[in-house]
Amino acid sequence: MTIMEGANRLEVRDLQVRLVGRPGDVVDQISFSVRAGEIFGLVGESGSGKTTLALALLGYTRRGLKITRGSIYLDGKDILALDAAGLREVRGSKIAYVPQDPSASLNPALRIGHQIRELLSAHPEVTDNVEGRMVEVLREVNLDPDSGILRRFPHQLSGGQQQRVALAMAFACRSSVIVLDEPTTGLDVTTQRHVLETVKTLCAAYGVAAIYVSHDLAVVGGLVSHVGVMYAGRLVEVGQTEGVFASPMHPYSQGLLGAIPSPDRAEVLWGIPGQPPRPGSRPVGCSFAARCPEAIELCLREDPLPIEIGERQVRCIRVTDRKSFSVRVRNSRAQIIPSSEPPLLEVRALSTAYGQTKVLHGVDLNVPNESCTAIVGESGSGKTTLARCVVGLHGSFDGSILFDGDEMNKSARRRNSSQLQRIQYVFQNPYTSLNPRKTISQILSQPLEHFMRLTSSDRAERISRVLDEVSLGSAVGRRFPDELSGGERQRVAIARAIIVEPRLLVCDEVTSALDVSVQAVIVELLRRLQKERQLSMLFITHNLALVRSIAQNVVVVSHGRVVEAGTVQDVLERPQDPYTIRLMQDIPKLNSVASALPQSSS
Amino acid sequence: MATVNHGSNSRIARFRRSQWIELVVRAAHTRRGKIGLIISGIVAVIAFLGPLVAPHSSLSFIGIPFSPASASMPLGGDILGRDVLSRVLDGGWLLLLMALGATAFGIVLGGVAGMAAAYLRGRSDSIIMRTVDVMLAFPALVFVLLLVSLVGPKLWLIMMAVGLVHAPAVARVLRSATLDVSERDYVRAVELQGVKSWKIMRQEILPNLVSPLMVEIGLRLTYSIVIMAGLAFLGFGQPPPSPNWGYMIQENRIGLSANSLAVIAPAALIALFTIGTNTFTDAVARVAIGLERSSGSSEDEVQASDVRLGTGVN
């Protein structure tokens, strides 16, 4: 480990955040330090406590939470010892925060210039030349201060520009520490790469210690020098990024890395079975033991302490006696040769508009029998609209959709029952696609009652069979959706689609609301179901990397036009269209991390 | 794989099966709910059991007009020398029953109209909501008086008329609640099967409107009583000899200085009942908000999913 100039800018010691009025902690035993110019990555899945920790670094907690132990040294001074006025002084000027969603954090009623000026005037000691600093900091985040951006309102900026403004505000006071909480989650890959590069350059230039919180390991991999993996409110593995990503030691880190799809190889994805404990209810012993493939009986009893191995800290009692630290070997997958039969679904010259805005321009598309076609595109490319046209939710379009050789009516309301039954749709967000007032078996029996005449015992049998098929078990039938995790809900949604034995399954971004480890499980489930049930599938995603794991054919959509289509192998390995080429380049890739941190190439 | 154990599953499941009842039970367990329930409960007991325990007939003349309180007439006499206590005990049950009836009529009519407007959209929405606007333009009491003076002071008509006055406001509230629910994907999912609209409204949407409906019922009940008592005060209630809290205030107010209890007693009961129902409704509303928050998913999960979805994913 190279010694960098200066000491730790931020040092966290034994930090704990508890629930108020209830037993249990959300974040516990957190210790790490960040030096000037370094970026520390904080990685974890939803509910792991990473956002709580990020906010706690500023001495702040959400309602119902309280920092109960530990200290946070900012340039040697413990900020948790400060009173409210002292904290206010420090926040914004010494330690800054970039929130997840810039559109929600910028005041929609105030001009951009006003908001930056407000921040600088709250900390008059920072600079005498407020206007000069504003221009300077906007240039640093690659926004042109002469373009009139200061007079604009937040809604007049794109998502990427908004996030740049948020970055400018974080860097405006030349803080020592900046906490970035998933700042690129809502952005498309190209914008994301530009924002990440800006963060990296600025941190190095001003000696800022940054904490970068993310659920996306691939993003973190290209950016940070050190990484901490969070699970159930604790850091389970801390170390240099290259080391952790090349040879993760904690079984959870290994699982997480194994779950990430790669655009370069067709592989079986490994998810992590089960689900993490809820915040505030960590079990006795190792919190990961229940899901850990390596767990022994001792793991369930003994609370693991961090063990130091070289520069790495790992919270696993078995880390010293387990031999191999490499990521699980992945099986590559045989490509299915496309059949020469006529396609099951044919979309011809489909065009549609929302009001005056044209969304799709003459899209042609085939889904061959018993194979999976992926539609890939960035947000706003019209891919979801295309899916909605296919299932009949978007009733007004030009062009035609042929299913099994027959032209279908444009609106679902006017399609016949057998067409409706043979095409099933799985929604993007499992949190809104299941009626919260119905039990799982009520939800599943609804389409059965509608499409099939069955006795109630036949229905019950079918329901329990389909629940087994999606690996939920029939006991889930009595539960309500809010008693299930996101991944489990999405399985229920898939079960609802396949229970009526469709021929075509349309999956609209079905994993985008889920964690990577859960995403892997769902993708594998879909792949298995497709093979076993000889389904055809239309898989819509913004994630080019996922395509490799599930589809045989791919259609790349940009601004409502198909820019490239073909087999997955052809398109991903030899992309022809400049748009596809750029997409492939901008995907944050894990394997580029191990060798060297990627430099901007284009 | 896929083991969920958050404990108390069976309790939650039982709750959802009869959520209407459970919402009320939960509200009754809060402090606010208890106070509201006790106050309105006392008034309800007086109104419905009162006729059975009244010391005198409510129609017989037993003292001099506006005689002050005495041992045989604890609340004194009224304008015709009848026992005020007996008249108070006997004068509430019909008022409350009519208020309940009017509430039920208004909620059903307004609820169906509001749901249909929001879910069917288009022309149905315009027709229903413009009708609602026109009805809202009439002052409530004037509207009822108009109807009653056209047809005559029939009890059923008064009940229907008061219900009709409630319907537009209920329709508006339910329309906005339905708009929110009908945008959800679980409604889309059922639409994609070609299920009929009325069935979707009944099976998918209605169960998600329990909370706003319960609050509306409570509010409308309170208003019903006020309007009913007001109408009785103006003489549109039961025909005169039979007692009615609202009309008692009217007929006895000339003797306010001689026996103020003849006015205060019925007025106090009306006031107490509306305060009670209003407080209880408030408790229901608060519990409903709490449930809404705890159902769905935990805050973190929602936030996490929102984050994943980002802002621009179409």
Q: How would you sum up this structure, described in words?
A:
The complex is a heterodimer of chains A (602) and B (314). With 602 residues, chain A is an alpha/beta fold. Chain A is built from 20 helices and 22 strands. Chain A has an 8-stranded mixed beta sheet with strand order 6-7-8-3-9-10-12-11, sandwiched between helices. A 6-stranded mixed beta sheet of chain A has the order 18-19-20-15-21-22, sandwiched between helices. In chain A, strands 2-1-4-5 form a 4-stranded antiparallel beta sheet, covered by helices on one side. In chain A, a hairpin with a 2-residue loop joins strand 13 (345-354) and strand 14. In chain A, helix 4 (112-122) runs parallel beside helix 6 and helix 6 (159-172) runs parallel beside helix 7. The longest helix of chain A has 18 residues, at 189-206. The radius of gyration of chain A is 26 Å and the shape is globular. By secondary structure, chain B is an all-alpha fold. Chain B folds into 2 domains: 20-92 and 253-294, no CATH class; 93-242, MetI-like fold. Classes of the chains: A alpha/beta (602), B mainly alpha (314). At the A-B interface, helix 11, helix 12, helix 13 and helix 15 of A face helix 1, helix 9 and helix 14 of B. Chain B: The chain crosses the membrane at residues 35-54, 93-120, 132-150, 156-174, 217-236, 256-276. Chain B: It is found in: Cell membrane. Chain B: Keywords: Cell membrane, Membrane, Transmembrane, Transmembrane helix, Transport. Chain B: Its main location: membrane.
